Amino acid sequence: MTDLQNQSVALDGLAPPRGSPILTGRLVALLACLSAISVLSTNIILPAFPEIGQELGVSSRELGLTLSSFFITFAFAQLLVGPLADHYGRKGFVLGGLALFVIGTMVAGFAGTLDVLIAGRVIQALGVCAAAVLARAIARDLFDGETLGRALSLTMIATAAAPGFHRCLAAC
After folding, report:
1. Where are the strands (E) in the chain, listed by range?
2. Predicted confidence (pLDDT) per residue in 140-158, tens digit
3. pTM for the whole thing?
C-alpha cells in the first residue's frame, strides 16, 4: 500500500493512524489518576466534617460552603481551562494544576478558620479542574475511534471507583 492508501485506511478507522501511540497500562493509569483526583478531593473531606467543625467551631451546615465553593469554582474553571489549554498546550496546565492543587491542599490543611478552609478548597478546585478536564482532552488528542473509546471507558471506571479507593485507604 502507498502512504496515501495507509492514511485513507487510518482515517476510516480500520487501522490506527501511523505513529499514533499505543494504549498502555501506564498511560491509562496516568489518565485515570488525573481524572479521579477530582472525585477524591471532593469525597475525602466528608468523613472529617465532624472533626473539622469541632476544630473550627462551625456547624456542618457552614462546612457545606467548602463543598459549594469547590463545585462552583470547578464548574466555572472548566470554561477557562479547556480553551486556554487548547491554545497554550496541555502539559503546563496539567502540571500547574497539580501544583495549584497541592498548594490548595496545604492552605486547607493548615486552615484555622472557615474562611481560610474555603479559600484552600477554591484553590484546590482550580488546580484539580485542570487535571480532570485535560485527562479527557489528552485522550482525545492521542487516540481516536475504538482506542479512544477504550481509553475513556477505562478512565471513567477508575473515576467511578475512586471513592472506593478512599474507603480502602481509610480502613488501612
Report:
1. none
2. 888 878 877 887 777 777 7
3. 0.76
